[in-house]
Amino acid sequence: MSSSEFIKGRGAQKNTPNTFLQHVYEMREDFLEFCRLEGEEAESNRTQYIPIFPKTIVNKVDSPDVGMMYSMNPYQGCEHGCIYCYARNTHEYWGYSAGLDFERRILVKKSAPTLLEAKIKHKNWGAQTIVLSGNTDCYQPAEQKFEITRKCLEVFLKYRHPVGIITKNALILRDLDILKELNAHQLVGVNVSVTSLSEKTRRILEPRTVSIQKRLETIRLLSENKIPVNAMLAPMIPGINSHELLPLAKKVSEYGALSFGLTVVRLNGAIGQIFADWIKKTMPDSAEKVLHQIQDCHGGSVNDSRFGVRTRGEGKIAEQIHKMAHLARKRYFGDKVFPKLNMDLHQQYKDSQMKLF
Question: Where exactly are the transmembrane stretches of this chain (predicted)?
Answer without folding.
Answer: none
